[in-house]
Amino acid sequence: MKSFTLPDLGEGLAESEIVEWHIKAGDVVKVDQIVVTLETAKAIVDVPAPYSGTILKRFGHEGDVINVGSVLLEIEEITTEISNHTHGQLEAESVNESSAAQSKDAATVVGKVSHQNHQVDIDSFWVGDASSAQEARSTQGASYAEGAGYTQGNPERSNNQVSALPSARLLAKRLGISIDLVDGSGDSGLILDVDIYNAADKQQPGTEVLKGARRAMVKSMAESHHNVASVTITEEALLNHWNKDEDISIRLIQAVSYASQQEKAMNAWFDATTMTRCVHTTVNIGIAVDSSHGLYVPVLRQADSYNAQDIRTWLDGTVKGIRNRRIGREQLQNATITLSNFGAIAGIYATPVVSPPQVAIVGAGRIIKKVIMEDGKPTEVKAMPLSVTFDHRACTGGEAARFVKALVKHLEREHGNA
Predict the structure, then answer these.
(1) Are β-strands 337-340 and 285-287 bridged in parallel, bridged antiparallel, or unpaired?
(2) Residue (of 285, 254, 225, 199) closest to 406 by Cα position
(3) Is pTM beyond 0.70 here?
(4) The predicted structure's pLDDT at residue 11
(5) Domains of the chain, each with CATH number or no CATH
(6) Quick one: pLDDT band at residue 128, thresholds 50, 70, 90?
(7) How many CB atoms lie within 10 A of CB 93?
(8) 410: Cβ–Cβ under 8 A, 6 or more apart, which residues?
(9) DSSP letter assigned to residue 305
(10) Tens digits of per-residue pLDDT, 37-65?
């Protein structure tokens, strides 16, 4: 029997949420067969089986959050017989093959899941970053010392040592869970992280532990508010020249692309540590997409090269992928500026949050009707409220204002790009 633990998925992140199991106890699997789909703070990842064999046990349920190194599966490995050898040779070669197989299996996990992802430059600005994983590892190390010893509180278990993963002890401390009251689901009653999460969910009815994109959003928003010097400019685009069947999303994406080319300072990344700014020539627009699982920001790369129909096709396919929780990490990386069309739901003006290292985000509010004076006469028009937040450390007020002016100019055209 072999235990398969959650490998480093090449993201520098310490935890993942189980989205879907593709196997059950008793199933026979082959090497590289997809056994589970996980969601990290950055993407959805399919995890393959490192061995061929029979599934003896699964650890964790769909929706559970687990840490790197936690046991995912127990597999009874399938072995093959070798003929034309003496009994002694078989024993010797069996030992060698077992050792080699373990080495190969380890390489399989790394090669199929981790090594490939390490070839991609991981952006640090998408929700969550590597520092959180390093912090988690360091605090877990400290918890070995804190977690050792005997528990107090429950008379029935006060004289017995609680068997728990160090990460589970730390998690219990953070969530205010008495670990001596938790029943472990691991081998010999070992308390796993998932047991602590389950206990937290039961502790206060109506509460929930944030997972997946919602959990990652907490870190991203906190980082932005702590590090970005945010300033918001508001303006309105009058849409009296628009056709009745205009696609608002397409017009917004085209306008952001146009304004980013006219005022390039807003289509940039900023690094406060090195005091450097990277002004991009390519416009990669992150499109904020709301879903029941949380906020996702897929990226339309080289947005200026797309025509209207291509943009609509991309939007439809991407939104469908998000709703089905089938979106790759590469689809969420390298945005140079972000667009949030919150007005599709509600709201007129807002203060959108910049996601570092980007320096700007465009927010579009609900289209409203208003009366303006035109040639001395009151005229009813449709207006789109715009809210543009920028990092004042990297952009001047003049650069931001010129960007907004270009944005409005494009939106007020009768037609967008063909």
Answers:
(1) parallel
(2) 254
(3) no
(4) 53
(5) 2-118 (2.40.50.100), 130-203 (4.10.320.10), 229-411 (3.30.559.10)
(6) very low
(7) 13
(8) 254, 255, 258, 259, 416
(9) G
(10) 888 766 778 888 888 899 888 888 887 87
pLDDT of residue 45: 81
Cα–Cα distance, 414 to 401 (Å, whole number): 23
Tokens of 272: 């406060």
Question: Model confidence over 88-124: pLDDT tens digits?
Answer: 444 444 444 444 444 444 332 333 333 333 332 323 2
Q: Residue 395, class by beta-carbon neighbours within 10 Å (0-12 exposed, 13-18 middle, 19+ buried)? A: buried
β partners of residue 390: 231, 360
Contact 139, 170 (CB under 8 A): yes
Query: Is the separation of the CB atoms in 268 and 359 below 8 Å?
Result: yes
181 CA to centre of own chain: 32
pLDDT at 94: 46
Dihedral of alpha carbons 95, 100, 103, 108, sign: negative
Contact 136, 193 (CB under 8 A): no
- Beta-bridged to residue 234, according to DSSP, are 387
Residue 180, helix vs strand vs coil:
helix
Tell me the longest C-alpha to C-alpha distance in the chain: 105
pLDDT surpasses 50 at 287: yes
pLDDT reported for residue 14 = 66
Indicate the SS3 state at residue 238.
Answer: strand
Per-residue pLDDT tens over the stretch 245-284: 899 999 999 999 999 999 999 999 999 999 999 999 999 9
Paired tokens of 236: 């309105």
Q: Which of 251, 407, 267 is nearest to 315 (CA)?
A: 251
Lookup: tokens for 23? 């196997």
Cα dihedral 52→56→60→63 (10° resolution): 60
C-alpha to C-alpha distance for 319 and 390, rounded to whole angstroms: 26
How many helices, marked H, and strands, marked E, lie in the chain? 9, 19
